[in-house]
Every structure is written in structure tokens, then in C-alpha cells.
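Field: COMPLEX_INPUT
Field: COMPONENT_COUNT = two
Field: RESIDUE_TOTAL = 591
Field: MODE = joint
Values follow.
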Amino acid sequence: MTIEIPDVKKNWPHTINAVTIGAISEQGGTRASTVTVGGETTLPFYHFEGAMPHKPVVAMEVWDVPAEDWPDPVRDPFADVLGDPGSWAKTCVEECGAELICLRLQGCDPNGANHSPDQAAAAAKRVAESVGVPLIIWGCGNDDKDNEVFPVVAEALSGENCLLGTITEDNYKTLTALGTAYGHKLIAESPVDINMAKQVNILALDVGYPAENLLIYPSTGALGYGIEYVYSIMERLRIAGLKGDKVVAMPMLCDIGVEVWGVKEAKAPESEVPGWGDVRARGPMWEASTAMVYLLAGADVLIMRHPEAVRMTKRTIVRLMGGGAE
Amino acid sequence: MILIGERINAGFKDIAAAIREKDPTAVQKWAKLQAEAGANYLDVNIGAASRDPADMAWLVETVQQTVPTKISVDSTKIDVIEAGLEAIDGRGALINSTTADPGKLEKLITLAVKHDASLLGLAMDERGSPQNVERRVENGAMIFMAATEGGLPPDRILLDPILMPIKFMQEQAPNVLETIAQYTNLSDPPPHISVGLSNIGSKTTERGRIVRTFLVMAMAHGLDAAICNVCDEELIAAVATAELILNKEIYSDSYVRAFQVRQRL
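Field: COMPLEX_OUTPUT
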């Protein structure tokens, strides 16, 4: 006897926006290539049901200061290049296969190195000149300082079609204006809160910033640290977008590295946690496992740190996209 | 929610004069105002001002030159509807409306298929307006079946259970609500369900309040379209709030703004 398997395929009425980051010379930039994410007509990797025309991509994180607080297992692979964001970015692209570089302007933090806007712009230019992949520029997180720094950095990278972040409910006017003026895409951030995720987008759209230039960053938690909350929010955002809520039909971004490398499962040496295994294997696996969860939740851009975690994640993406085992 | 702007109708003096004098000013004004307010369709109706199909074509063209919004071609006369459809430039259209009269129904289904248009069916027949739930459901089901068999998918069919003025036919409002609920069971997915909303408040002194309250109650029963005054901000806010309460929309602090932004995207 054969049992008929019911056809559960859904036909979603709306498509997630496709967003291109980076600009080659004909487009007014200097990138060697561009990256397009989004465009899904179905849930993540439901190839049987709809299209996922652009695969998720991995960006690697580079700082404008030597990242003193990164734990050794993730700092060591970059030991020779930490002092120079250009060389660091080059290592990420050429040796680790980074598809974008995320320059985090941590050095601008007024409670840290307190770099000037010009110093930040110089770091950004240095990265732009060193690699050909598209760029993500992430502020230091201090609103006042970011609002001083971004005008200079956004202008220095004018035409490069970078992804700038982040805008929040309380701080979106400067970046939306800069994004429009200098041709950059934006990351809309909210604190694991679907209502606020929507609210930030409405605020940006209301000042005239185009919906199709936004990515949603719903916040990220490391595996074991609230990941299921973020997962459910991403899932709901994606379903709402596919159902036709154009205010949330954006690709999503996850900031993996910064979260994972702050938790003890990734960074505590075995001497402190006997039985957990070698931290040099455990850390990258924790980062790759976290990334895997977010891929299934609908992430389109993953920002990561460890070269081995990046390799594992990129292999996973190829297989989930139907590329088969290696 | 499918919002169909009611204002470009020769029942209004400024539109009747515009049609008579071929002066596009008032038509352009209401096209812009209603599109800006978030209308999904703009209803155009030459009403009693004219019997000439060419006037419908003029009205459609005038609206099309002003805004990109889809058009609801509104007439009881088939030749007038056809002239309106012929004038449409490829954007989406809605035929407003057929009844359950078999001859008319068949012709308008053919036109809807030919022009890739949606079809709104009034739950009335040659006997006139229905006075109970059963007649409304019977007529609605007949229109739905005929349209489906004629090749229209459920999402291009809108059923209207016939809303009547509460001041004169108060007992009909609950019948309409019950009919809406029954229409949602016609198919999965169900057809769209629409009403001519302003009817219920006709000749009342509390028109806005009656219209808004009815709309929210009807949405709770399954209504998802309305021909209405889309420029009524309180009405739009009520729609946005009802969608929120029905969990059709993700909450955000600016949810009314979100509704408006989304309607325009």
C-alpha cells in the first residue's frame, strides 16, 4: 500500500527584497565585485517550495584597533596583521574566503582609543584599498560619536555602496541622510524585539529612506544565550515579509563573532572547564554552530571572526544551497 | 485590507461637473488625495451624470495620468464597464460590479478574464436586494461558483453582501455580519469580501462613528475590502488597529503609520 504524502507547499504572495552591496567602477565604486542577498520567495532553504536566488554570505570582522579583548584562539590567526586593518582585511579575503569585510570602528569609542572621524575614515579607506570585496562599516556603538564619525567615513567611501550600521529607534536620522547622500545601504538594529524591528524600519521609511536599501539586524545571541528568542523573531519577520508586510520584507543580518567570542563555551581554556575539550577546536565550532542556527532562521549576511568557523559555515551554505557534499 | 476609494463618483457634484465640462481638476485632486491616503483601488463612476461610455473612458484616462493606483470601474451598465476596461493601461483593474443575474454575470466574468481584472459581485439578483442571510449567501455562492468556473481564482473575486442604511433597515446589519462569516467558508483561500461602507451611515447624524464601528465589527467577521472614504483618517486608523487586533499585522509603536507606509509601498 502506498501512502500519499500530502503536498504542503505554500505559495507565498511576496518576495523578500534583494539588496546589492558594493559597487564596481561602472557603478561609481572601486569594488572588484558586488554581493547581492535576499530575494527569497520561500523560507530558508525550502528549495522544494520557492526560490532562494542569492545564497547567504559570510562577512569577516576587522577592527581599526588591534582587538586586544579578542580571546587568543580567535586573535592568534590574525596575530601578524592586527595592527593594520588593510592587511587584516586582505588576510580575511585571500586566506579565509571572506565575501565581505565588516570594519568595526571600535577605535572611535570615547571610552577607548577615541579615534577622530578622520582616523576612522583613513582606516576605512585603507581597507577599501586593500580588498576588492564589498564593505560593511559598523560604528563604535556610542550614538554621539557615531554621528560625528559616520559623516566623514560615509563621504570617504562615497559611491562604494557600503552597508552602514546601525540605525536604531533612537538614532536613525544621521545615517539615513548619509545613506541617501553618499549611496550606502543601512542596517536597522533592534534589541530582540519584533515590534521594534518593525518600528525602526518605519522610522527610516518615514524620512524617505528606501525600503529596498535596508537590512534587518534583529540582534544576535550566541548558541546557549537566548538564540531561540532571536530565531523565533527572525522566523516571524521572514514569514510576515513573505506574506506581504513590505515594512519587514528585508534580508537579515547576524553579528555572530562578537557574540560567540564573549561566551565561556567558546573562549574558556580547558584548564578552567575540564572535559570541554580543546578551546582551539571548541571555539570555532561554537561559532560555526551558532552561524548554522541563524542560517536556518533566515540570515542572509553573517558577520564572523574565526577562519575555521568561516570555512565550516561556507561549506554548510554550499550544501544547504544544494551543492552536495564535498 | 483592500481599500477602494469612493470619491471619484458622479454622485458628488464636483465630479458630475468635471465629467460634464471635461475639466480634469476635481478628478485629479481626488485621485491624488485618495492615492496618498493609501487606496489600493480608485473607484470611478459616471453615475447618472452620463450614459456615454466615452465619459467612462475619459474618467479612467484622467485618473491614470495622475496616479499609478489600480482602478475600480464602477457602473451598472456593461457597455460603460467595457469602455472603462478598454481604457486601462495595463495596471490592475476591478470590475464593480456584477449581480447574481445569470446573463449579466456571464458577460462580466468574460470581461474580467479578458482584461485580467478582478470582479466584484453584489449578492443581489433580479428580485432585488436580499433581506436575509440565506439569500445573500445563495447569491454570493452562485457568483463565486460561476466566476471560479469561468476561470477567475478566488483572490480575484470580491463578494459584497449588500450593506443597507442602518437608519432605515436596522435589522439588516447583523444579517450582513453573519453573511460575511459564511462567505469566508466558501473556499480556502476564501474570496475577498467587500462592502460599500458609506451606505450604512446614510442620512445619520453620527455617520463617521457608525461607519467606523461597523467596519471594525465586519473585519472581525472576515471582511477584507471596502469601498469607502479613504481620506477619513479616523477610519484608516480603525482599520490599522483592527488588523493589529486580528494579528494580521505585527505590532509596532507607529502601527498606524506602518499601515499607511505599507499601503503606499
